[in-house]
Inverse folding.
């Protein structure tokens, strides 16, 4: 594995375990098994490391939740796939998911959300949600609030299935959870 990737993985782990401010770059280098000089070769500052990590994880999350979306014809089916892909990614990538949650609750996420690649993906979601509203698949309400609420429900699903992993294979539970999710959204 290349050193940059080792540093990003070590940073993800330590930021989740210790927090952003309590994680020195020396600990990240040590966890990755590289010298501090190598870390600063790839990332000029700790903030640069945090920014790159956040952007790369947001891109990975988005790519995964949009996977196979083009194979679904129904608008409701697309919402369900995004819902399912979102919580599955969170369960399959627990440290990455926790890091994204952690950063989303800091002031640095405000600047990072202006990153061109993230803006492009965000606009894609905004347009999709607006289309769902226009066609009366989901209720008309402030789109930003709606997206935050949807993510809150997805986060609850990840938390619940982490605590009760046997439910991940329980189709009755999955259907009930989907119905609850969609009942929140439908007009």
């Amino acid at each position: 594995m290349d050193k940059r990737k080792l540093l990003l993985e070590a940073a993800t782990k330590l930021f989740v375990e210790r927090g952003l401010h309590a994680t020195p770059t020396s600990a990240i280098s040590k966890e990755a098994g590289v010298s501090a000089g190598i870390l600063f070769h790839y990332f000029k500052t700790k903030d640069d490391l945090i920014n790159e990590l956040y952007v790369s994880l947001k891109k990975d999350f988005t790519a995964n939740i949009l996977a196979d979306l083009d194979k679904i014809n129904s608008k409701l089916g697309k919402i369900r796939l995004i819902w399912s892909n979102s919580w599955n990614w969170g369960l399959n990538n627990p440290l990455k998911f926790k890091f994204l949650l952690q950063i989303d609750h800091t002031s640095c996420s405000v600047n990072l959300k202006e990153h061109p690649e993230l803006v492009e993906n965000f606009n894609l979601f905004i347009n999709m949600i607006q289309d769902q509203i226009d066609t009366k698949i989901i209720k008309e309400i402030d789109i930003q609030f709606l997206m935050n609420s949807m993510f809150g429900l997805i986060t609850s699903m990840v938390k619940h299935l982490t605590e009760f992993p046997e439910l991940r294979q329980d189709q009755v539970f999955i259907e009930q959870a989907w119905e609850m999710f969609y009942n929140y959204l439908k007009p």
The chain has two domains: 1-44, 53-185.
